[in-house]
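Entry 14. Structure prediction run on the chain below.
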Amino acid sequence: MAQHFYPLKHWSAYAVAGFDAQDFLQRLTSQNYKTHRVGQAKDMAVLTATGDVIGYSVGWNVEPGVFGFMADAQEIPVLLEKLEMFHFAERLEIKALPDLTTMILFNKHPEQVADGAVLGQSALEPGLCGQTNLNGLRVTWLTRKGLCASDLWFILPQAQQPHVAEMLKSQKIVPASEAQFEFYRIRAGWPKRGVDYDEESMILSVGLRLGAAFGKGCYPGQEVVERATAIGSSPQTLATVKLSKMPDAVPPMLLSVEGREAGRVTSIAELDGTILGLGQIRTKQAGLNKAVQVADSPAEIVALY
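Output returned:
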């Protein structure tokens, strides 16, 4: 795979910062912040009582008491409203950071794009964050399992995005097209808000397990998540399917098993002759390498999340 970068233009940032921020996030989110330490990057979700996803975020923490998050821009107003609803006497501030954006670098050694060896080999491990210099620009970085084993994210001011893009291209790291990114996203099982899931989607049914700390204790939606985990599955699961041809229909498309409806494919993309789709399937009818039908195209399940 070529070395690519991609700006997440439809994502934005917000922060929860203050003396009580860590305890507040522990109480309200699906992630475990009780044992959290500075320098860790974690996904997290805010859920309803039934385990549905109000909002999903990719987070970082490079200084005590300051927790930054990137999320789909359409989720941020709802997330901020929900967090403020439960913000009482805690010493913290919840605020949007609309001037920040992010770029994802995948299939690339992080230390090769920093000044010197600022990130180092340890940055190849997902779940870390810090700050570094890119041609004199101070940026926050985090590593996350996403499009590949460990993607590198840069969080930076929107005004600096063109500057960083030119720097990456000078190192022969090429921008991914929207079509390429969509293919890699589907291949990795990364659901998109408003396409593959919405506010009525249960977190485990749409493959967002990275944002859930199982066994962490009480938080909104915890009982549903733990119960589904205890029985070994949720009613539906996210799947990537490989299609034999591009269907005549457009997503969302019926996914069937042995002639019976089993789910929906909500995203589809083609790259170099390979056609992949992403969607939810009933867990009892799911299985790796299982033959399925997507609209008028034969297909097989190649990954389950």
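Confidence is low (pLDDT under 50) at residues 109-122.
Filed with the rest of this week's runs.
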